[in-house]
Write a structure and sequence with these properties.
The protein is an alpha+beta fold. The chain has eight helices and eight strands, in the order H-H-E-H-E-H-E-H-E-H-H-E-E-H-E-E.
């Protein structure tokens, strides 16, 4: 498994110092190099160097949003089209992994921020809406490789042991983070393809939970992509005419070449 996945963790405590110029350059490069899952969806990724300003603005907008205080933030905005949440998760986690490899701490922060003050400071041009943000800074404790994450067994995620044909990619998905560690991924392998689903939640706050699960879907796909790239495997993602299964929503089909 790639080193970045082993190093990645949700950092909630940061050193009270800004990133050095070299680290800032890495942040900007990671944003510019991140690939989209859906190229037809407009996004805007902002590196907010003035973390104090964003923290004061965002943390007063909604009491339901738990905010991590950090020297900097990456703000993820998107137009709202089919697949936009998994697209944001896919883009954002590529950034997170590259920063982890450079020893820079991050943490996904979910929650709605809808406020005129926010819109004025972080322009919602082209109908772009705030989706989530990522805290950024030097962690109080250096990042070290993690080997004992609390995760579902692969046999719970994959509905057939054909995943063993691409075992490293399966392990990379297993290591991916998710909201409250729900791990909503459900994979139905078939030959060299994986049909990729996420759990659909019902009941209290189901809309919000399903939105977070969609972001998690994109996060998981970025792990599969980066691990496959390490091995030199070519993969692509294709939306096939699949039907949702009971309690599950179809996201995409992963095709290994």
């Amino acid at each position: 498994m790639i080193r970045e996945i082993k190093l990645r963790k949700s950092v909630r405590k940061y050193k009270n110092e800004p990133l050095k110029e070299k680290s800032e350059k890495i942040v900007n490069e990671s944003i510019n190099e991140a690939k989209s899952l859906h190229g037809n969806i407009k996004t805007k990724i902002i590196f907010e160097k003035n973390g104090e300003r964003f923290y004061k603005t965002a943390s007063t907008l909604t009491k339901s949003l738990f905010f991590v205080k950090s020297p900097h933030y990456i703000i993820l905005m998107s137009e709202e089209k089919e697949g936009y949440l998994e697209n944001i998760g896919f883009i954002g986690e590529q950034i997170v992994l590259k920063l982890a490899g450079a020893g820079i701490g991050t943490c996904w922060i979910g929650g709605n921020v809808n406020d005129k003050k926010f819109s004025k400071e972080y322009s919602t041009e082209y109908n772009l809406e705030y989706i989530a943000c990522i805290s950024v800074g030097y962690p109080e404790e250096d990042l070290v490789e993690i080997t004992d994450r609390k995760r579902k067994d692969l046999d719970e995620i994959f509905k057939d042991n054909i995943y063993k044909n691409h075992f490293e990619a399966a392990k990379a998905l297993q290591a991916a983070p998710s909201a409250t560690n729900r791990q909503p991924w459900n994979i139905y392998p078939e030959d060299t393809n994986w049909d990729y689903y996420i759990e659909e939640f019902s009941g209290i706050m189901s809309d919000k939970r399903n939105d977070l699960a969609a972001i998690d879907a994109g996060i998981g796909l970025s792990h599969i992509l980066m691990e496959s790239n390490r091995k030199g495997e070519m993969i692509n993602f294709s939306k096939e005419p699949k039907k949702d299964k009971e309690g599950l929503r179809y996201i995409t089909t992963i095709k290994f070449k």
